[in-house]
Amino acid sequence: MTSSVSPDFPSVDKERDPDAPKDTPVINEKTSSRSGASSTQEETEGGFAAWSTVVAAWIMQFCTSGYVNAFGVYQDFYTRGYLPSSSASTISWIGSTNNLLVFGGGLIFGRLFDAGYFRSMLVGGSILFIFCLFMISISQQDHWYQLFLAQGIGLGIAQGLLYLPSLAIIGHHFEKKRTLVMGIVASGAAVGGIIHPIMLNQLFEGRVGFHNGVRVSAAMNGMLLIIAIFISLQKGAGTRKEEPSSSSESERPKIKKWYQFFGEPAYCTAVIGNFLFFLGGYYPLFYLQLSGITHGVDKTLVFYSIAIMNAANLPGRLIPNHLASRLGVHNQMIVAASICGALAIAFIGMHNAAGMVVIAIIYGFASGAYVSLLGAMLAGLSPNLQEMGSRMGTCFACGGFATFIGPPIMGALLGTTNYKWLRPSLFSGCCVLVGVVFMIIARHFKIRDVERKRLEDLDREPVEKTPKSRRIV
């Protein structure tokens, strides 16, 4: 990857490399128009309020995205007997509807967060989350609509109320460490994706059974969310702030409507790329366990396949975030998505335990890297801190719609009895790889925008007073 300018986190101060060429792009990171915002960010960088909220956000990720990552267990259990009258495609509508509301609801949830309803969303989402799990536990066998209402719609809304705020709140507490901290928070989803599948498989297939197993899961998640409610602090998060009185009206940042974001080429192409990634990217997560069973892989190993994928997901969510300042957020996302697309196509050749484990590990790491860096990329595309929730929500809404239609399409391509793995594998891989093309285009627009901003800053201030830094996108 060639290095270039990256504006993802413009508040980090670095000196120009003395060996760098004179024409190396630089960014004025302390312009007068952002002085008020910079001082506010310095005040909220770290501290007890910030780190206790990080723990709460980690728990929220564990209970939301971590549980979404365990849907493959439900998909397999429902397909093999609990919903005998429903096809794999019909059953996948439960999980895809859940995904639609978790991510797609961000269009509404992001606005609520920006309006200052973080704590209300946390409490309300937690209550609804536990209620819906208990509704799943009293569902009747072969009654698809009951699971669709409780797990697809109800649980999706609850998880959506928790998911986006758990990421957006980090941007209000951290600036210099934002990428790393977002990776730490996102690791909660990976840990949840390890624990939830193992626990659910053991409960469903053991003496506890499906109904009591879901109740055990509800009790565990309920206790964790109560802890999150008590330790999350709202200092500097989810509240609208007035600009310093010394700023003139013309200098105050103008907050855009969600549809106006698409007038920015970098943001628009990034959202399209993310849409295509989510359209095909959930294929291994939904169908890995079913594929292993139909290909005769040992049942015990198959039940751990999703947990193995999410175990690899954990370092994938931490290591790339740590290396973001060196390798660039956009660069790593492009590589990670390319690997995911290639492995989705390689899914065609998975016929034994070794192939299943290899795909689970590599895909888990790459998809974890992509998802954990997504929040940091969107934060870098948010010039106004008060738009961060809305920008994330809009992107997640588009991605949510992709996860809504993607799994059922792949389920239909797979078939009902004689599974044809070639068709959904090609569909998944092609969607993701076309998404990579749009991510590369988004990176190009981002570099162009930063260079334009740099020249504008140089025109406003003397060159000798401009702090300089080198960036990698």
From TrEMBL:
<feature type="transmembrane region" description="Helical">
    <location>
        <begin position="90"/>
        <end position="109"/>
    </location>
</feature>
<feature type="domain" description="Major facilitator superfamily (MFS) profile">
    <location>
        <begin position="53"/>
        <end position="446"/>
    </location>
</feature>
<feature type="transmembrane region" description="Helical">
    <location>
        <begin position="301"/>
        <end position="319"/>
    </location>
</feature>
<keyword id="KW-1133">Transmembrane helix</keyword>
<dbReference type="GO" id="GO:0022857">
    <property type="term" value="F:transmembrane transporter activity"/>
</dbReference>
<feature type="transmembrane region" description="Helical">
    <location>
        <begin position="356"/>
        <end position="381"/>
    </location>
</feature>
<feature type="transmembrane region" description="Helical">
    <location>
        <begin position="180"/>
        <end position="199"/>
    </location>
</feature>
<feature type="transmembrane region" description="Helical">
    <location>
        <begin position="426"/>
        <end position="445"/>
    </location>
</feature>
<feature type="compositionally biased region" description="Polar residues">
    <location>
        <begin position="29"/>
        <end position="41"/>
    </location>
</feature>
<dbReference type="GO" id="GO:0016020">
    <property type="term" value="C:membrane"/>
</dbReference>
<dbReference type="InterPro" id="IPR036259">
    <property type="entry name" value="MFS_trans_sf"/>
</dbReference>
<dbReference type="InterPro" id="IPR011701">
    <property type="entry name" value="MFS"/>
</dbReference>
<feature type="transmembrane region" description="Helical">
    <location>
        <begin position="331"/>
        <end position="350"/>
    </location>
</feature>
<feature type="transmembrane region" description="Helical">
    <location>
        <begin position="258"/>
        <end position="281"/>
    </location>
</feature>
<feature type="transmembrane region" description="Helical">
    <location>
        <begin position="121"/>
        <end position="138"/>
    </location>
</feature>
<feature type="region of interest" description="Disordered">
    <location>
        <begin position="1"/>
        <end position="44"/>
    </location>
</feature>
<keyword id="KW-0472">Membrane</keyword>
<feature type="transmembrane region" description="Helical">
    <location>
        <begin position="219"/>
        <end position="237"/>
    </location>
</feature>
<dbReference type="InterPro" id="IPR020846">
    <property type="entry name" value="MFS_dom"/>
</dbReference>
<comment type="similarity">
    <text>Belongs to the major facilitator superfamily. Monocarboxylate porter (TC 2.A.1.13) family.</text>
</comment>
<keyword id="KW-0812">Transmembrane</keyword>
<dbReference type="Pfam" id="PF07690">
    <property type="entry name" value="MFS_1"/>
</dbReference>
<feature type="compositionally biased region" description="Basic and acidic residues">
    <location>
        <begin position="11"/>
        <end position="22"/>
    </location>
</feature>
<feature type="transmembrane region" description="Helical">
    <location>
        <begin position="393"/>
        <end position="414"/>
    </location>
</feature>
<feature type="transmembrane region" description="Helical">
    <location>
        <begin position="144"/>
        <end position="168"/>
    </location>
</feature>
<dbReference type="InterPro" id="IPR050327">
    <property type="entry name" value="Proton-linked_MCT"/>
</dbReference>
<protein>
    <submittedName>
        <fullName>MFS general substrate transporter</fullName>
    </submittedName>
</protein>
